[in-house]
Specification:
9-stranded mixed beta sheet, TPR repeat, 35% helix, single chain, Papain-like_cys_pep_sf, 8-stranded mixed beta sheet, alpha+beta
């Protein structure tokens, strides 16, 4: 029952019956239907003997649909010809009881060399046997049985195999893994999966291990668990006895003696490095830069290249190589500099999982250099990009690695820490000196370092000027906020491996008005950190959390505050130096002479956080973020309406905003954003004419529902009801389903005295039904309550309340309609009370109640409510207007007139709105 020796055909598939040790699978009896599995047989059998691995597969798949038929009509089988043979045993089509030999008539697989990973800079040397299976129909079963026989000379007689295992909910008709080995070839084996029954059975001189597929459903794991918890189910076999055995086996491949010949180009480079001034550290950094910058990455897996590195002379001549080639080149250079160095094998994605695996080379997919300088380990990766002297002590997140030594070595852990320099370093100089409500003017510079910079620099050659500028704008939009830009620029510095972005622009004001004061956050990076491990399930309680690989970001803000910063203060924790949730956090905040300085840095450290520490770390981060500093404005803030448009336009901040918008518009005349953004700014400072003109230009370039509705409202505010209605209709033409467009058209029809037409539009939407029906019913009631029969409006709202008792907004509607229409005031008191109490102090409900008090002549009560609303929402024009009216009723004419001026400044149409209800100054 030994392995039959194949003919080692190399680059030509063999066509032979399966050897006698294979036990063929029997086709299962499965009913055809929607619930039937597509894969009827998945049988994998392995045999290890005399340093050789025979891998057999039997796959039977039903063409249950046209899509599956397309997939099965063309088969592909990859294999490495330098390591063994591909052997085809059977290719047949099963149609009912008929078995059709798809290899009859001397039909053969065609062999192709398809470097499918070339775009990922990998040349594998893998050959692909491909065949178009003729005559397959929907309902047929295609069965393929084949073997791959392999022996890798780089493993020095050792054999290894890793098989991924399907688990429920994946479905199979019949599935199995079967492994055999002779006494003299017994491998170690391991099932890295839960709830699998597998016991080896010895029959004569052969041991057999069998288990069924698919496996039972594997336990779900939190997404942030380390890879040793989240790895896919695996079956491993290896003839390596220990990690030291693996280390010793790989060692000869990385011997460097004699690899740099005297007088060779590499010898010239080595001599140059030796002659450099500086320490061993300086020379090690220079050697690493030489390898990173002068040898591009290209994985070469052909001709034994899976494990055998390319010679340094070839790597230097070709100027390309993979991690093996770059490591061997770097090793040769470092050892030539008398710097202690050794290769280490690493797993790039599952390093913390390595100790649980069987010792084998297959546990790794990467190799780098460990250099020892002054007794300290440095992890030097030739495939990295942009590493300089300052970065040489940075630590990769590879978990456990295996040093490659002639005497053998055990696994070694890499303890990660924060990187020396930030990968992204941002400086922002912002001018907000005019007023909190004006757009923020900024000059920004971002220095990108290391691998990020190198990748961007590599892509710049493929970008035209427009795409390059879009890249820069997109970067700053992410870091600062959506903005309009006057200028953007880029500069590269190969010596420092940096790329610098610069920009000048304007963005939306970050100030918020809360509790009668303007407030602004000063934290950019720390507040953005998210750490929320989910360990709610009992089975997850003991699972630690993995954190991000080491990377640093720095943000420096220099901000000119409004009004020279007089009486402004900082609230919160200004100075911070703490390690929390896998991050090192640093921050300083200073306010001096009207200028705010913020320096903030976050560094992911790549550490793993133990399960029992997770609650404390979450709490610590929440505490840090809750204490993030904010700038607090003066007790008596000013508002834009306190100044006329000409005064605001004269401020340096406003002039800068105008200049930036002008350049942004000129730079891209086909983009409407510049005009619409400038229009918002101008409208906000009271320049209504030019604000509307900009909106006209934006719509001329790129008409949209949002722009039409925006212009409709602004036209209405300036008294142009006909223009507002026209814009509403244009918006509805673009999107007849837009609720905003329907409401706009109906509102302005009613405002034009065409209430019946407005109601007809809304009734048509109500008749359609669906989720929006209740909203349209409520809108109809408000139309009637404002322009028509208030009694009918109240009937609609009461009917809605009967259907959905306790709906706060409906009580508010009752309160408002009764108050504005001056009807049924006694019952309105209960409605207003319900609205205020159920809404937990909603400003809308309090404003409505103020209207009721006004109608009842209770002006002091009305003023009390309006004071509350205006204090919380000072830009609410209706409340401002009514406050002015109430003040005048109380005899405070000058105060009332001042309030009315503010209301008209915020909304020029507000007097006409209230005149409809008979309320005038």
């Amino acid at each position: 029952m030994g392995i039959a020796a194949p003919a080692w055909a190399g680059e030509t598939p063999l066509y032979q019956p399966a050897p006698a040790w294979i036990t063929p699978a029997v086709m299962p009896k499965i009913a055809v239907g929607a619930d039937a599995p597509t894969t009827l047989i998945l049988d994998n059998q392995y045999r290890i003997e005399k340093g050789q691995l025979w891998s057999y597969a039997d796959i039977a798949t039903r063409a249950g649909s046209a899509e599956e038929l397309t997939r099965l009509s063309s088969l592909t089988l990859p294999w490495a010809p330098d390591k063994g043979d591909l052997i085809i045993h059977q290719l047949s089509i099963l149609r009912g009881d008929e078995v059709i030999d798809a290899l009859a008539g001397d039909r053969k697989f065609t062999v192709l060399r398809r470097e499918e990973r070339l775009e990922a800079l990998q040349i594998s040397g893998i050959l692909t046997a491909t065949m178009a299976v003729e005559g397959v129909r929907v309902g047929d079963i295609v069965r393929l049985r084949y073997s791959v026989v392999s022996k890798d000379d780089a493993l020095a007689g050792h054999v290894q195999n890793v098989t991924g295992l399907p688990a429920a909910p994946f479905r199979l008709g019949y599935g199995r893994v079967r492994a055999l080995w002779a006494d003299g070839s017994a491998p170690h084996w391991k099932l890295l999966a839960k709830d699998v029954e597998a016991e080896p059975v010895k029959k004569g001189g052969v041991t057999e291990l069998t288990f069924a597929l698919p496996l039972s459903k594997q336990p779900e794991m939190p997404a942030d668990a380390p890879s040793r918890f989240t790895h896919p189910p695996l079956f491993e076999m290896s003839s390596f006895g220990s990690w030291a055995d693996v280390s010793k086996t790989m060692a000869p491949l990385y011997a460097t003696g004699g690899l740099i010949a005297d007088g060779s180009p590499l010898a010239v480079e080595l001599t140059r490095l030796k002659g450099m001034a500086g320490s061993a550290m300086d020379k090690a950094a220079a050697a690493l830069q030489l390898v990173q910058d002068n040898v591009r990455y290209l994985m070469v897996g052909m001709n034994g290249g899976n494990y055998v590195p390319q010679k340094p002379a070839d790597t230097w001549a070709l100027r390309y190589g993979d991690c093996k080639a770059k490591t061997l080149l770097l090793l040769a250079m470092l050892r030539g500099l008398d710097i202690e160095a050794e290769p280490v094998l690493a797993s790039s994605a599952m390093g913390d999982f390595v100790p649980e695996r069987l010792p084998s080379v297959a546990a790794f997919d990467h190799v780098l250099v460990r250099a020892v300088i002054d007794g300290k380990s440095y992890w030097l990766d030739g495939t990295g990009l942009g590493t300089r002297l300052e970065d040489i002590g940075d630590t990769p997140q590879f978990g456990w690695v295996l040093p490659v030594r002639g005497t053998g070595a055990d696994l070694m852990a890499i303890a990660t820490h924060a990187n020396a320099r930030p990968a992204i370093d941002i400086e922002v100089n912002a001018d907000e000196s005019g007023h909190e409500r004006l757009p923020s003017v900024f000059d920004a510079k971002a220095v990108l370092r290391g691998q990020i910079a190198t990748m961007i620099n590599a892509g710049l050659g493929q970008m035209d000027a427009k795409r390059r500028d879009e890249l820069i704008r997109g970067f700053f939009n992410e870091q600062i906020g959506t903005a309009q830009y006057a200028d953007v620029g880029i500069a590269t510095d190969p010596a420092s491996a940096t790329v610098s972005f610069t920009a000048r622009g304007v963005t939306t004001s970050p100030w918020e008005l809360t509790d009668r004061r303007y407030r602004r956050s000063t934290s950019k990076l720390i507040d953005a950190i998210s750490f929320a491990p989910d360990r709610a399930r009992p089975a997850w309680l003991d699972i630690p959390a993995a954190t991000s690989a080491p990377i640093g970001v720095r943000y420096h803000l220099r901000l000119r505050l409004p009004h020279g910063g007089k009486d402004y203060r900082i609230e919160g924790e200004q100075d911070l130096s703490r390690s929390v949730a896998g991050y090192d956090l640093r921050r300083t905040v200073r306010l001096d002479g009207g200028v705010l300085e913020v320096d903030e840095r976050t560094d992911a450290t790549g550490v793993e956080i133990a399960a029992d520490r997770l609650p404390d770390e979450r709490d610590a981060l929440a505490t840090v973020q809750a204490g993030s500093p904010r700038v607090i404005g003066t007790e008596k803030p000013t508002y834009l309406w306190d100044y006329d448009a000409a005064t605001i336009a004269s401020w340096p901040q406003s002039k800068a905003v105008e200049a930036i918008f002008a350049k942004a518009i000129a730079a891209d005349a086909e983009n409407s954003d510049g005009y619409s953004s400038r229009g918002n700014f101008r409208w906000g400072i009271g320049d209504y004419k030019n604000g509307l003109a900009d909106l006209d230009k934006a719509i001329a370039i790129e008409p949209s529902v949002a722009l039409y509705l925006q212009r409709a409202y602004r036209r209405f505010q300036t008294g142009d009801v006909a223009g507002a209605l026209a814009d509403g209709r244009l918006a509805r033409q673009l999107d007849p389903a837009s609720g905003g467009a329907v409401a706009t058209v109906a509102s302005y029809l009613a405002e034009s005295g065409k209430l019946d037409d407005a109601l007809a539009i809304v009734d048509a939407k109500i008749a359609i039904g669906g989720e929006q029906r209740d909203g349209y019913r409520n809108y109809k009631a408000n139309l009637l309550g404002t322009y028509g029969d208030a009694t009918k409006a109240l009937e609609i709202i009461n009917a809605q309340l009967a259907e959905k008792p306790g709906t706060t907004s409906l009580y508010n509607d009752l309160c408002w309609i009764k108050g504005t229409r001056n009807i049924d005031l006694e019952s309105a008191k209960q409605d207003c009370t319900q609205a205020v109490e159920l809404s937990s102090g909603s400003m809308a409900a309090i404003d409505s109640r103020a209207m009721l008090w006004f109608r009842m002549g209770r002006f002091e009560d009305a003023l009390s409510d309006l004071d509350v609303v205006v204090a919380q929402e000072p830009e609410k024009a209706p409340s401002r207007f009514m406050r002015g009216i109430v003040l005048k009723r109380l005899g405070r004419n000058s105060d009332g007139d001042a309030e009315l001026v503010i209301a008209r400044r915020i909304d020029p149409h507000i007097p006409a709105t209230y005149a409809r209800f008979g309320i005038t100054p």
